[in-house]
Amino acid sequence: MIIAIETVTSLFTSPEPSSYIEAMLLKGGQALLVFVIGWIIISLLLGGFGRLMQKRVPDAILRAFLISVCGIAARTLLFISCLDMLDVSVTSIITALGAVGLALGLAMQDSLGNLAQGVVLLFTRPFQITDFVEIDGMAGTVEDMDLLRITLATPDRKRIYISNSQAAKGKIINYTAFKERRLEIVAEVAVSEDLAKVRQVLGELFAAHPQVLKEPEPTVYLSVLGSDTVQVIGRLWVESKLYWQVYYQLLEQAGAAFAAAGIACPEGKQLLRMETNQLPL
Fold first, then answer.
1. Secondary structure letter of residue 18 according to DSSP
2. For residue 73, which of 24, 219, 227, 281 sits 20 to 30 Å off, Cα-Cα?
3. Taking all residues of the chain, what is their mean pLDDT, rounded to a whole number?
4. With the C-alpha atoms ordered 23, 26, 32, 35, is the resulting torsion angle positive or negative?
5. C-alpha span between 155 and 102 (Å, rounded)
6. Model-level pTM?
7. Which DSSP category does 23 fall into?
């Protein structure tokens, strides 16, 4: 790049101008041409760097961040070089920018905190784009993430914007971090019911469902023994993307299977439910 700039500058080499205006116009033309050609060269290099990063850095957000940082650094150096060609005191400009930066830093502490937390989140990567997450009590699919905020899309098509500092300080739950999730269904029946029959109905139901994974093997256990009711818990594994689809299907099928087998729910109790309060995907 330096060789190219020197070559362009040499094109403007001419006998010493006779006037100050001519000298300034000559320097201005040189600086402008160097700036345009340098900008083009930087853009081409960033394009090649981006293609290289696609193979080395699979994460799109981190890749865009690294390319952006390199682009800002390269163009800043180009701008400073052009100012130096115009005999502008770069040192005084840097000093002034430092003072302005200090003042802005004090006035924009929250924004700079978001920026810093955004860099941390980009490198720690607690989630990816399209992951379903819960951040500080708010849940949705990650649509976008930049240096200032995270954008979530809720299942009912609302958009939530969360600052990076809020996300970094709060609790982050990634519901799609793994390909499989464990589904737990609880059946609450009268203590007089045949527990072996209840376990058999649930076990056969899980084994017959095509989207229930065979490994790990589904299990059915007695979990709570009360004075008038007992709770039987069924645990099975499904693909994360099919979690709620399988849950609703099994809930409906289990209700029908229990009715066909003559298994009833005690009055005032809930026959089938999910073990834990999960968020919908």
1. S
2. 24
3. 79
4. negative
5. 43
6. 0.59
7. H
